[in-house]
């Protein structure tokens, strides 16, 4: 493999880069958690999948097109760990497996929390437009996300970590499991 191609998968450090999908229901705290972690870890970048949505044409999101744009960004990244903050289920629909295959994550971290906490977080967050589901619906969606992540992880033989009541420490421990030094 030539040096340029090798560097695209190592970030220039010689260490293989890792794309880690950090997923969970809306309002669980994925963005806050990933952002704080990346600010304190120079070898890590944090990217929100939703930031790429405007790059894809069409009202019904082309998830495969979105995944291609994100994968291109990962390849260009000079960081060793690329935290992709996104969703596996949107509006009750699973992200198509074709899009997951294009992303080709090296691991998946699912962030969960108490559905009541998520509910109150969402109704008190005026910074984003979010639909607010009941705590029961949030619990059901969390369960669906975890089950879909288990399926993806098992079929692709990729590590999966589920973080409950996320903290920087729990994210760090999950990443250590996925990116041993």
Tell me about this structure:
With 181 residues, the protein is an alpha/beta fold. The chain has a single domain, classed as P-loop containing nucleotide triphosphate hydrolases (Rossmann fold), CATH 3.40.50. It has helices spanning 3-10, 30-39, 63-76, 97-103, 115-123, 135-156, 168-178; strands at residues 18-23, 44-48, 81-86, 89-90, 93-94, 107-112, 160-164. Helix 3 (63-76) packs parallel to helix 4 (97-103). The radius of gyration is 16 Å and the shape is globular.
Short description:
With 181 residues, the protein is α/β, with parallel strands linked by helices. It has seven helices and seven strands, in the order αβαβαβββαβααβα.
CATH class: Alpha Beta
Structural class by secondary-structure content: alpha/beta
- Mean pLDDT over the full residue set: 84
Strand and helix order: HEHEHEEEHEHHEH
Integer count of domains? 1
- CATH-defined superfamily: P-loop containing nucleotide triphosphate hydrolases
Q: Strand order within the widest sheet?
A: 2-3-1-6-7
Distance from first to last alpha carbon: 23 Å
Biggest sheet record: 5 strands, parallel
Number of helices: 7
**Tally of DSSP β-strands:** 7
- What CATH architecture label applies? 3-Layer(aba) Sandwich
Helical amount: 40-55%
Strand content: 15-25%
Shape descriptor reads: globular
Instruction: Kindly identify the CATH topology.
Output: Rossmann fold
Indicate the radius of gyration in whole angstroms. 16 Å
Unreliable runs, pLDDT <50, ≥5 residues? 1-13
